[in-house]
């Protein structure tokens, strides 16, 4: 059966879910905030445990970006609670965000989180949803590969700056190999605007021009995406 998933640019679907923090209605529970919904294959598994620890260690950075976290797997709420208690006791890390219990897989199927790789476990999916409940990014990772949590932070931060300044981001920003800490201008879509671009901005061609962001924005981004291993 083909997998159907919501698309980037669409509104996040309305879902009633049961979590370790009680029942929630999505996306209404995060009205006015960004949120990252991420699924994991199962509780009490090694890769997922390391991911949850990393999400918890970066939780304050997500909060500073007006962004909430919510996990999901097809395990029960009892399993989720036991697992997060084990993480806190054994590893000394408290998991501060809710986890959706989806033992029947209804939420997972609605969001396209069950793939051919495993019809019974959710793959490592990430939905990044903005403060208007619009899906801005969707990521998929295989079961055997843990996610890079600073990259998820970089995506949220970059999308918010894109909205704020009307720019587009180069690869690896703010450490791009071509324009460094600078950001790109969206290419013009009118023939009369094309020759003006290199008069207005630095660049390599009318369709490849760049500009600076305020220094404090760049430095804050670097601070946020720094890997925390303590």
Characterise the protein shown here.
By secondary structure, this protein is of the alpha+beta class. Helix content is 30%, strand content 21%. The chain contains seven helices and ten strands. A seven-stranded mixed beta sheet has the order 2-1-5-4-3-6-7. A three-stranded antiparallel beta sheet has the order 8-10-9. The longest helix has 17 residues, at 149-165. 33% of the residues are buried.
Mean pLDDT: 94
Oligomer: single chain
Note the overall shape.
elongated
Kindly state the percentage of residues in helix.
25-40%
Radius of gyration: 20 Å
Secondary-structure-derived class: alpha+beta
Distance between the termini: 44 Å
Biggest sheet: strands side by side, in what order?
Answer: 2-1-5-4-3-6-7
Give a brief description.
With 230 residues, the chain is an alpha+beta fold. It contains seven helices and ten strands. β6 (124-129) and β7 (135-141) form a beta hairpin.
Keywords:
230 residues; alpha+beta; 21% strand; elongated
Task: Reconstruct the topology from this structure.
Layout: E1 15-19, E2 22-26, E3 34-39, H1 46-57, H2 59-64, E4 67-73, H3 77-91, E5 99-101, H4 106-110, E6 124-129, E7 135-141, H5 149-165, E8 183-184, H6 197-200, E9 202-205, E10 208-211, H7 215-224
Parallel strand pairs: 3-4, 4-5
Antiparallel strand pairs: 1-2, 1-5, 3-6, 6-7, 8-10, 9-10
């Amino acid at each position: 059966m083909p997998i159907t998933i919501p698309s980037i640019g669409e509104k996040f679907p309305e879902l009633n879910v049961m979590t370790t923090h009680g029942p929630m209605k999505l996306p209404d529970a995060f009205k006015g905030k960004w949120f990252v919904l991420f699924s994991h294959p199962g509780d009490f598994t090694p890769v997922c445990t390391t991911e949850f620890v990393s999400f918890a260690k970066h939780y304050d950075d997500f909060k500073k970006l007006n962004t909430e976290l919510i996990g999901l797997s097809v395990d029960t709420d009892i399993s989720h609670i036991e697992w997060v208690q084990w993480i806190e006791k054994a590893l000394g890390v408290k998991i501060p965000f809710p986890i959706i219990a989806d033992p029947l897989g209804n939420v997972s199927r609605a969001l396209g989180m069950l793939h051919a790789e495993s019809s019974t476990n959710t793959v490592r999916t990430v939905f990044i949803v903005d403060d208007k409940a619009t899906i801005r990014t969707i990521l998929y990772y295989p079961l055997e590969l843990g996610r890079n949590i600073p990259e998820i932070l970089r995506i949220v931060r970059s999308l918010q700056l894109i909205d704020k300044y009307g720019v587009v981001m180069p690869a690896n920003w703010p450490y791009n190999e071509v324009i460094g800490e600078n950001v790109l201008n969206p290419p013009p879509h009118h023939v009369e605007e094309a020759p003006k671009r290199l008069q207005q901005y630095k660049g390599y061609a009318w369709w490849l021009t760049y500009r600076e962001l305020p220094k404090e924005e760049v430095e804050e981004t670097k601070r946020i995406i720094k890997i925390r291993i303590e």
